């Protein structure tokens, strides 16, 4: 259904040329076919809007069939089909704001947004559709399962502010997602491991650089929100490699902190398996990783139990590894850090003295967290520690890695250009007994 979003404006765009090309009975016949098809298409789209996000297979098919009827009517009369293709391309180009690098060819323009494919692995249990083999957003819940794979498709609007992951809010009388306004999980398509590998390899083959970015979410995050955040971060970083998500079985509730901690620990062997598969079977060159909050427990523990430098010849390597606001015990992080430093090209730690979520976590756990700044800030040789305290972030001060434009710009300089902190804008060297770290300067 996604590819037909611009169908009506595309037909309208070429119609003046059609009037000049056809005349008489041929034009009358075409008008009848196209108008009937467009009416049916708009009715099918209207029904799909009422069913969002769980659109039934019958409605999906109706949208597709009616759109194809209009397309077929034009393609059966050359050169109208070629004109339609040109108009689709023009509409996509005029709406797209992803940049400066062009979006990968396998990202699709749709309704003033880009459809971003997020390849995923998860140890969540799958919620299967009861009446259809098709699957829909929300395929994975909070229950634990075995390692599974697939592709999630997320629409990211072209006029969304950088760092924003908007979704419908009931208090704004917004009850259904709008791809022109919201970041929306459109569909999930589970697959076996071999199909997953083939798809990742195919996407790498279409990219300029054989690199991938893995996002590992934190505590209190659903599968749908994790996929949306992965797509949003990749979009805002102008990342043109393969986007991947590892989603562990967070319950997605604020009162489930202890249970989420156990779930993160349980997921470590699955995460190692996923990372090994990605590095050894897909033909990837560099794998970059961003882990947020409690997701850093998977990352630090996972790398401590896996030596990626000893993988077979021809395997990919770890590129830039980012520990964002890690909800990891301060001493445990220090103990596990050498394993990551030994394997990755660079390791970056983002910390804040205004992270209220980590302040609560440290009180609950009786020990400071690795993502906290101040007297407990972690500084170590080979680790680039970045203090974001001066930026003034969101209410909790915890999600800055994805929603603060200064941090996104800092990450862009790292991932796109490989710049060290001394080459990146807005950072000042800060002395420390264990070596220097870097701090953002106060913003006016």
Automatic annotation (TrEMBL):
Pfam families: DUF900. One of its GO terms (molecular function) is hydrolase activity. The keyword Hydrolase applies. Signal peptide: none annotated. Keywords: Hydrolase. Residues 127-160 are annotated as: Disordered. InterPro entries: DUF900_hydrolase. Transmembrane segments: none annotated. PANTHER family: ABC TRANSMEMBRANE TYPE-1 DOMAIN-CONTAINING PROTEIN, TRANSMEMBRANE PROTEIN. This is Alpha/beta hydrolase. It comes from Streptomyces griseoincarnatus.
């Amino acid at each position: 259904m996604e590819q037909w979003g611009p169908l009506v404006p595309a037909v309208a765009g070429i119609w003046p040329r059609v009037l000049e090309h056809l005349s008489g009975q041929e034009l009358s016949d075409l008008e009848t076919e196209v108008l009937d098809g467009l009416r049916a298409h708009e009715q099918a789209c209207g029904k799909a809007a009422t069913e969002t996000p769980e659109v039934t297979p019958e409605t999906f098919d109706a949208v597709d069939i009616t759109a194809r009827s209009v397309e077929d009517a034009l393609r059966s009369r050359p050169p109208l089909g070629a004109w339609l293709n040109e108009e689709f391309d023009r509409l996509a180009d005029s709406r797209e704001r992803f940049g400066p690098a062009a979006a990968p060819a396998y990202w699709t323009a749709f309704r003033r947004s880009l459809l971003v494919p997020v390849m995923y692995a998860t140890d969540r249990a799958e919620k299967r559709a009861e009446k259809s083999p098709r699957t829909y957003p929300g395929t994975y819940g909070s229950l634990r399962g075995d390692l599974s794979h697939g592709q999630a498709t997320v629409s990211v609007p072209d006029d969304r502010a950088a760092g924003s992951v908007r979704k419908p809010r009931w208090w704004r009388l917004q009850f259904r997602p709008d791809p022109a306004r919201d970041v929306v999980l459109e569909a999930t398509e589970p697959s076996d491991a071999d199909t997953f590998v083939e798809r990742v390899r195919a996407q790498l083959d279409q990219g300029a650089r054989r690199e991938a970015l893995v996002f590992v979410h934190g505590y209190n995050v659903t599968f749908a929100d994790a996929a949306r955040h992965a797509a949003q971060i990749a979009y805002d970083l102008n990342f043109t490699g393969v986007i991947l998500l590892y989603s562990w079985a967070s319950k997605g509730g604020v009162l489930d902190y202890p249970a989420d901690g156990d779930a993160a620990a349980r997921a470590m062997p699955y995460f190692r398996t996923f990372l090994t598969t990605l590095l050894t079977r897909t033909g990837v060159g560099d794998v970059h990783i961003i882990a947020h909050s409690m997701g850093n427990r998977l990352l630090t523990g996972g790398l401590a139990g896996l030596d990626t430098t000893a993988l077979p010849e021809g395997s990919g390597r770890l590129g830039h590894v980012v520990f964002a606001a890690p909800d990891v015990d301060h001493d445990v992080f220090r103990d596990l850090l050498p394993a990551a430093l030994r394997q990755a090209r660079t390791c970056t730690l983002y910390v804040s003295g205004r992270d209220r979520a980590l302040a609560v976590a440290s009180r609950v756990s009786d020990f400071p967290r690795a993502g906290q700044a101040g007297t407990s800030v972690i500084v170590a040789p080979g680790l680039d520690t970045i203090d974001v305290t001066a930026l003034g972030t969101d209410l909790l001060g915890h999600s800055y890695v994805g929603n603060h434009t200064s941090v996104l710009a800092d990450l862009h300089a790292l991932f796109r250009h490989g710049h060290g902190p001394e080459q990146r804008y807005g950072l000042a060297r800060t002395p420390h007994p264990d070596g220097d770290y870097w701090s953002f300067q106060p913003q006016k």
